[in-house]
Amino acid sequence: xxxxxxxxxxxxxxxxxxxxxxxxxxxxxxxxxxxxxxxxxxxxxxxxxxxxxxxxxxxxxxxxxxxxxxxxxxxxxxxxxxxxxxxxxxxxxxxxxxxxxxxxxxxxxxxxxxxxxxxxxxxxxxxxxxxxxxxxxxxxxxxxxxxxxxxxxxxxxxxxxxxxxxxxxxxxxxxxxxxxxxxxxxxxxxxxxxxxxxxxxxxxxxxxxxxxxxxxxxxxxxxxxxxxxxxxxxxxxxxxxxxxxxxxxxxxxxxxxxxxxxxxxxxxxxxxxxxxxxxxxxxxxxxxxxxxxxxxxxxxxxxxxxxxxxxxxxxxxxxxxxxxxxxxxxxxxxxxxxxxxxxxxxxxxxxxxxxxxxxxxxxxxxxxxxxxxxxxxxxxxxxxxxxxxxxxxxxxxxxxxxxxxxxxxxxxxxxxxxxxxxxxxxxxxxxxxxxxxxxxxxxxxxxxxxxxxxxxxxxxxxxxxxxxxxxxxxxxxxxxxxxxxxxxxxx
Length: 491
Prior knowledge:
By secondary structure, the protein is mainly alpha-helical. The protein has helices spanning 2-21, 23-38, 46-60, 63-93, 107-136, 140-164, 169-193, 205-240, 243-252, 254-267, 270-279, 283-310, 312-320, 328-341, 345-353, 358-409, 414-422, 426-443, 449-470, 474-490.
């Protein structure tokens, strides 16, 4: 419930910022955040490597090693944070904003925003080691609570600045302070969740550092590829088109990002879980993740994703106001691809968790190169549509390569994957989608929030009811029906 509330409040805050400051000035704030993330290429793979190493050593039952790894990780994250923050400060102070298509009268404000973002990036990185520690310990409920509370704080800070009619940079200052408070809170949670070190000898720092670097090699490639996919589009648009195009892209991609975050929340626990099972030699658990886990993930997320496809234009109009529905086609296309790519989500997590990262990383790098090359080629002529098209083509290349090269390395059999994952999900989904699309064309554009919620609930329920019969195993279906019946009777 807290996560849903934070997502809704973020929508309200984004709309308020765009309408109050305008799409060009809002883009300055968004670009500072994106460039902060893009600088992660200077320390690729560190977060994922640290999380997996912690999960692996936790499975071996040596608490002293966990505390030693935390100490080493804290120092490494501190050095990285200072380096990344300094780079962004120099970018802002050195006039880096001039490289982007920013109006001359906005260059001063843009430089100040980048400078402030760099200062807080230097503080945020060292504190993020505690979030990764909780992830490695599989303390996801506590981590999610802290993240949701912080997200609510970010949105509240933005709304406060709009209400008080203050400077745009103050949004970043307040959000930076919330980052620091979140980091201190996560530090307390991480140290509380770690078991007492005991009397066992701890590994030497050099050994732990070698482990991080060894695991982090291909993880680094994965993270670089991810950054290229999700951070460079904004920079390409700002450098080759305009800052207004950045805001249009952010609005258009919102539904895609919401569904992706929802899917990521469900799958985020898997790398650490599979690392534990892999360390214990439990191949059966990994098999359950690939087949049954993927099918259940699709049954949960596809109703949301396909409802978003059908309602993209309506959502943009209700959220942002009249005129924004013109981006509905691109928003639907963006989410529509995600509905297909979801079938590989758990498999990617399983590959990371079991240490089979090399083929996944190579595929991700190829896809990222295709993405950035096509984005640069298409953006000047086609703008936001060109960047989205480039991203979708790159995604499609990655999906094909994963099917051909990654599945066999994980021991996934094509016939079984077709029978147990694809067949129970996608043919029924297409039938329901066709029926709902025919109904939606009769209804026309929805421009009221209440009716949009009614339509979303109806559409999502239609998909969910079908998946209840086709995707769930009989025993799980009985358990779910019993649970719902008991909850209904108790209320």
